[in-house]
Amino acid sequence: MSILPKNELHKPSGTPRNFFIWGATMSGKSFLAEHFPNTLVLNTDGNSAMGTAPSIQIRNTRKADGSLDQSCIKQLDDIILALGTEANTYETVTLDVIDDVCGLIEQAICLKAGVEALADIGYGKGYAMFNSALQGLVMDLKALPINVVYISRENDITDDNNVTVKVPSLKTKYYNVVNGNCDLVVHTQHIGKNYLRNVTEVRRQYHASEVDDPKILNILKAIPGALTPEQTTKAGK
């Protein structure tokens, strides 16, 4: 049997599965993420006790002499393997927060090499190892048959015109890797007594009639701009 697919057009999936949620502290990022179905939280900021979803603390463990015992890279690999091969009921995995995950990956590489910074590993090898680890993590998560949610904090930057804008705190080069594999980017804000959400980037137009997961559809309905109004045709056309 040929490994090539049949040469025919197919209908693209109408359900987003990979999400990036960013915002300031206490703006409702984790609250929104908790509404995704059957979530496993990969936690880094110590807030897992505040939520109700099962969680795993992502960290690098050290030996008594300070050297690396087990890296977060290995820990994440083991978790993803378990999600993909073991019988479980999880429908979503959330990284809270991806900024810290990147920092832990960098720390793991430095500890293993016995250096203080990636730049101390010669010939750009440290940066290459980091890029490979991050891209592998994102691609492995995307390959899982479940929803993936990345959470990031918020930064203010001032442009050349002295205008301050809010952006995800994840470094741009890392954001490009993660966002390049996401379907929807959502910004959360807490203004007065109101918690606001808005879509800042979207891979394609999503119509309610095309979303085949009712749980995801309910979440999209609560995010202004996530769904595109259905096209209507005039009578007699």
Summarize this, please?
It comes from Levilactobacillus senmaizukei DSM 21775 = NBRC 103853. The chain has 237 residues and is α/β, with parallel strands linked by helices.
In terms of topology, how is this protein built?
Layout: E1 18-23, H1 29-33, E2 39-43, E3 55-57, E4 61-62, E5 68-70, H2 72-85, E6 92-96, H3 98-113, H4 125-143, E7 147-152, E8 154-158, E9 164-168, H5 172-179, E10 184-191, E11 194-202, H6 214-221
Parallel strand pairs: 1-7, 1-10, 2-3, 2-6, 6-7
Antiparallel strand pairs: 4-5, 8-9, 10-11
Helix pairs in contact: 2-4, 3-4
- Model regions low in confidence, pLDDT < 50 over at least 5 residues: none
Shape: globular
- Proportion of residues in β-strands: 15-25%
Rg calculated over all Cα atoms: 20 Å
SSE-based structural type: alpha/beta
Tell me the series of helices and strands, N- to C-terminal. Answer: EHEEEEHEHHEEEHEEH
CATH C-level category: Alpha Beta
* Order of the strands making up the biggest sheet: 3-2-6-7-1-10-11
Task: Give a verbal description of the structure.
It holds the Pfam family AAA_24. This is Phage NTP-binding protein. This protein has 237 residues and is an alpha/beta fold. It has one domain: 3-Layer(aba) Sandwich (Rossmann fold). Helices cover 30% and strands 24% of the residues. It is built from six helices and eleven strands.
